[in-house]
Amino acid sequence: MSPINHFSKSLSESKTSCSNVYGSRFASEHMPCNSFPQEEMPKDVAYRMIKDDLVLDGNPMLNLASFVTTYMEDEAEKLIAESSNKNVIDHEEYPKSVEIEQRCLNILADLFHTPQINGKATAVGTACIGSSEAIMLATLAMKKRWQNERKAQGKDASRPNIIMSTGVQVCWEKAARYFDIEEKMVPCTETRFVIDPAQAVDLVDENTIGIAAILGTTYTGQYEDVKAINDLLIEKGLDTPIHVDAASGGFVAPFVNPKLMWDFQLQNVVSINVSGHKYGLVYPGIGWALWRSVDYLPKELIFNINYLGADQLNFTLNFSKPASHIIAQYYQMIRLGRRGYTDIMSNLTHTADYLTDQLKDQGFVVMSDGGGHGLPVVAFRLSPAQHFFFDEFALSHKLRERGWIVPAYTMAADCEKMSMMRVVVREEFSQSRCDSLVHDIQFALQALAAQEIQNIQRYQALIGSQLALPKALCVEQSCRPMLPAPEKMPGITVNARECVDA
Ligand SMILES: *Cc1c(COP(=O)(O)O)cnc(C)c1O
C-alpha cells in the first residue's frame, strides 16, 4: 500500500468517526439520490444535512401563493407530534381519535346547517387528506346515485355528465377524467370569473349527475351563486344535486358572512367539501366531506369496518393516515370557537380590503370582491393605463428577490389571455406584513420601470450602430456575436439563426 493510499484511508476513517457535522466525510460527498447508501450515517449528521438542504425551499410565511395553513400555535404542533404515530383507521386501537373525528364532523354539520330529523342531525361525512379526496368521493357518490336511479328506470346509464365553471380547481377535471364523467363547462368571461347560474342550469339533461358550485374560486376568491343555481333548479322542477366546493369558503363565509345562503339550507345541496388545512387553520393533510344524509351516499360505496361489535362507516380512497391532523382540527375548533374564527376571518377580510385599496392607489386593477363578499384573497393585474411594457410575471419575479412569493398566472380557459397576480391573505399575514409587501411592490414597480427606460435607451443606441451583441444572445457557441448591417436587420429581434448567418 502506498503512503498516499494509506493516508487517504486513515483520513476517511477518521472522518467517519468525526463528531462535527461539517468535518465529517458526509459534508464532502454528494447526498444519496438514487440508491440506498451502503452504510448508516449518524443521526445528527442526517438531520443537519437534510435541514440544510431544505433552506432552498421558499419561506412558508412569505408564500402568499398558497391557501394552505403555515402557522399553528405551539400547543397544536405538540398535539400533532404526539399523535402522528396513530393510524386513525385502527378504530379498535384508537377509539378516542375516531370519536374526535366524529366530533369534528358533528361541529361542521352544525356549522353548515344540516337538516334535523327528531332533533338529530342527518348529515354524515368523513375526514379526508384534503378537499381533492373529498371531491372524488362526492363525485363518485353523485355518479353512483344517478346510475342506480337510471338502472331502476331501465334507462341507459353509460354517459354521465357533470356541470361546472371553467374556474374550477384542477381536482374537478381529475375527478371527471378518473371516473369517466363528461365535463360540461360553463365558460368564464373577461368580466365574469365565476359560473353563470342560468347557463349552468340550462346545461342540465337526463345524464347530469350534478352541478359543482365553488365557494371561493382559486382564481379570484369570489363565491359562486349557489342560491341562484338552487332556485333556478327548483323553479324548473329539477332535483339535480348540487355539490358545493367550499374548500376555502367553508371556514370563512359562516363567520364573516353568516347570512349568505350556500349550504344545506338550500334544498338541492347534497354534499359539501371543505379543506381543514386552508381556512380551517390546520397544517396540510386534512379535508372534510359531508353529505346531506345517508340517502346521498349509495350503500355500495360504504365499507363497514367492524369495531368492537359496532359498525363503523368507512368511505375514503385512502386507508391509513395519521390521527394528528384530525386532532389538530379539533384543537382549533375548541380553542378558537366561533368567536375566535370570527375574529381571525374578520381581520383577514379587513387586511385584504386594505391591500386592495393600496394596490388600487398604485394603479392596479383588482378583480376580487372585497368586503367579505368573497375570500380574503386579492387578485389583481397591471392596468393598461399604467403603460408598462413589463408584465405580471416580471413583477412576480422581482418580488421574489425580497423573498415574497406572489404568483402570476393566467385566467381560466376562455380568458387565459388575461394574466394576473394573487395574494392569499392567511392568518399570520398581519397589517404590518401587508405594509411591507405594499412597500416592496411599489419598489419593484419603480425598479422595473427604471430598468425598462434603461433598456429602451440601449436599444435606441444599438439600432443603427454596429455594436457587438452579448454572447448570451447566441445559441451556438461558434456564432460570431455581431449584428448584421442595420438595413438587413428585421427590427431589433435577434434570434439564433441571425447570429449564425451573420
Ligand atoms: C384547494 C382547493 C381544492 C383542492 O383542495 P385540497 O385540499 O388542496 O385537496 C379544491 N377546490 C378549491 C376551490 C380549492 O381552493
From TrEMBL:
It comes from the Eukaryota. GO terms for cellular component: cytosol. One of its GO terms (biological process) is L-glutamate catabolic process. The keyword Lyase applies. GO terms for molecular function: glutamate decarboxylase activity; pyridoxal phosphate binding. Its EC number is 4.1.1.15. Keywords: Decarboxylase, Lyase, Pyridoxal phosphate. This is Glutamate decarboxylase.
